[in-house]
Structure of Bifunctional NAD(P)H-hydrate repair enzyme:
Amino acid sequence: MKILSAEQLNEADKITLENEHISSTRLMERAASLVFNEIHTRLEGADIKIKIFCGIGNNGGDGLVIGRLLHKYGYNVEVFIVDYSDKRSDDFLINYDRYKKESSSWPEVIEENTDFPEISPGEFVVDAIFGIGLNRPAKGWLAKLLKHINNSGAFTLAVDMPSGLFPNKAPQKDATIIKANYTLSFQNPKLTFFLPETMNFIGELQILDIGLDRDFLKEVKAVAQLIGKREARQLYRPRKRNSHKGDYGHTLVVGGSYGKIGSIVLSAKAVLRSGAGLCSVYTPKCGYQILQTALPEAMVITDKAEKELSEIKPGLEPDVVCFGMGAGKSQTTANAFKALLEETEKPMLIDADGLNMISENMDFLNALPKNSILTPHPKELERLIGSWEDDFEKMEKVKDFSKTNDLILVLKGSHSFVFSEGNMYINNSGNPGMATAGSGDVLSGIIAGLMSQKYEPLVAAILGVYMHGLAGDICAEEMGVETLISGDLCDYLGQAFLALEKE
Ligand SMILES: NC(=O)C1=CN([C@@H]2O[C@H](COP(=O)(O)OP(=O)(O)OC[C@H]3O[C@@H](n4cnc5c(N)ncnc54)[C@H](O)[C@@H]3O)[C@@H](O)[C@H]2O)[C@@H](O)CC1
Ligand SMILES: [K+]
């Protein structure tokens, strides 16, 4: 699904009105009716107190339509106009009048010195103060009102966006923002919903298709692509009946050091579980028995050194090399890594200490085969590209870094991001249970395993990240988020592939 900016959504809005020959009031009625339907379906006429806070722009107009419909269906609803400016939008005014005509009660106006209405924890609040039109932080009494709603403990539903959040820029550090339990957003998700600093304001997210112009939406260049099951399924290639293990490639996992052999056990297991035909592991001597015992399906080749990688001479030609997990970053290992980079021509996957060694020797980037994949977590990323002011600056820096160096970057996080050629893909699977030791080693293995099966590196990265999250989701559903450990992610990959294929 495409993630669009406020400007693009406004453009889509305009084009829809022209092409469908409808008024903006009609479009507002359509969008807000969908919100009403969602509320009505869930509340089923319950006698719960509903308070709707409407701004004076079109988000407020939506709120008034929702209020009118709830009123019509007999709900116990109170509407408040948050009167922060006299620049009321036309559709706000039309719906303000309609509300007054069709409902028995008039909305209450909240201004600078008005006492805020009391809100109790059992009530239902609809936040229709600001949507994508927010152009500066909420200040003064307005900020106090947002805090008052947040402190009430009431269930809060945000219309289009939680008020106070910008769709495509970072909020100020001390900004006041509605902390929604649920967000019903129109047509396309907004970038801010997926960034670490702002994602927690959204609560649960649902996108409502308000029927904006299909052709425009198809053509417009997305700010980013959100990768869900539908998108992942399109990337997946089922196996042919008539095939053998050679068709699925040979992955070489290189890494491990004394005390950190577990990391490559996890990566190699994920390589095989994601469908690679063969997996070899190159490791210091101390890893030999551990690997052969823990993972008899993998072949093991050892370095001449006992406890660290000193010279990477596997004596085979793999389809893909997956490097770095548990490798350590001694000078000896760094030299061996540099030599490996220089000898390798096919795109590689670099993780963990491989990334740290690059950060300490940025010239290694020149030797990295084009289209290789780097999989940093935020700390590793900071070592690679330096610090950033906010999430939006971070995204721009990563985009530039991946473009300049001709590589694919997977930024791991609650929503992992994949960057390639100036494009951005946001993963929508996964859960907090996956914040556990070794989860990244499994991800590297999955992506490398897919690369060895001749998935293009970018496709392997996007699909791999999705499958990793999906395995985690299935797993968490069965065992809970606390209990999930990385080995489980490998074990549940099979169920994830089955779930991907199922409608
Ligand atoms: N674009 C679309 O396709 C559709 C949009 N609709 C609704 O329209 C909304 C956007 O409406 P608007 O563009 O009128 O914008 P909003 O209703 O989000 O807010 C706009 C008003 O607030 C003012 N403002 C912004 N930040 C402020 C601040 N911090 N303090 C005080 N005033 C501030 C602006 O100058 C503007 O007058 C969407 O979020 C959605 O709810 C829907 O009605 C249907 C279709
Ligand atoms: K809102």
User: Anything to note?
Assistant: The two ends are 18 Å apart (CA to CA). Residues 59, 127-131, 158-161, 163 surround potassium ion (ligand 2) (CB under 6 Å). The mean pLDDT is 96. Residues 115 and 236 are 57 Å apart (CA to CA).
